[in-house]
Write a structure and sequence with these properties.
Radius of gyration of chain B: 27 Å
Distance between the termini of chain A: 100 Å
Order of helices and strands of chain A: HHEEEEHEHE
Largest sheet of chain B: 5 strands, mixed
Strand content of chain B: 15-25%
Largest sheet of chain A: 5 strands, mixed
Radius of gyration of chain A: 31 Å
Number of strands of chain A: 6
Shape of chain A: rod-shaped
Strand order of the largest sheet of chain B: 5-4-3-6-7
Strand content of chain A: 15-25%
Structural class of chain A: alpha/beta
Oligomer: heterodimer
Order of helices and strands of chain B: HHEEEEEHEHEEH
Number of strands of chain B: 8
Chain lengths: 139, 148
Amino acid sequence: MTLMKKKGRPNSEIPTASMADIAFLLLVFFLVTTVFDEERGLSIVLPEAQNEVEVSPKNILFLMVQPDGIVNIQRGENPQIQPARASEISAIWRQEFANNPNLIAAVKTAPNAPYRFMVDVLDQLQSAGADKISLQVLE
Amino acid sequence: MAMNKGGLKRKSKAASEIPSSSLADMAFLLLIFFMVTTTFRKEQKRDVVFPEAEATEKLEQPRKDVLHVYIESDGSIFINDQLYPTDQVSNVVAPLYAANTAMVVMLRSDRDVPYATIDQVLSELQAAGAVRVAFYTNLEQRMIRERR
């Protein structure tokens, strides 16, 4: 009788010592597999179709992105073209915008230019606080 | 005297162990957090290298309001894991936009895609009425810019 009692005692409880280990194992699995996939990027609002607005040419700053990444800058009707690197555009925009607060940036990208050059220019413009940006193809 | 000694001994015994009974509770709490926040991606992984930009911003739109348009380096366009020709994009996007007008189109395009492809997609989106567009970029670090 006494022997039987002793044997029965250790089995009467559920072992909880390994509970934390199990939980941590699962925890590590979820820690490793979790990806916080956030949406990030440069947002822009396109003009609605059949809703084109006439803009005076003197309020436009043309940024012509060439296939090699060089950006030719043309100020409105002024035929003079100033070549610049993408990294300089932020400063140029700030300067031009200070002179003319109605300025619109028209990014004209060559059809065979890689997408990243257009993003570089857009990045510089948005860093400089430009909000009126037009995206076009360079003809 | 003897009583005092015993009492002291008992006290020190109780404090000598780190309480581990709440360990499992803590672990489960963290576990539940990660289980709830985990999202397994529905879309297939695409072989796309994103451009980098300093002005990269986090979009506030909830996940359900974002439509992903993948453009691979060879110019193929994928919407919801399906390949579409360029001129079909507006036909695909228009009903999706009509169903959810809060939709933002996220252009996840490869950095080396010719701009002509992007422009075609943009005008297709314009035709579909989906005018809120975002270009997916990775955040650019200053150091990388300096080296270029």
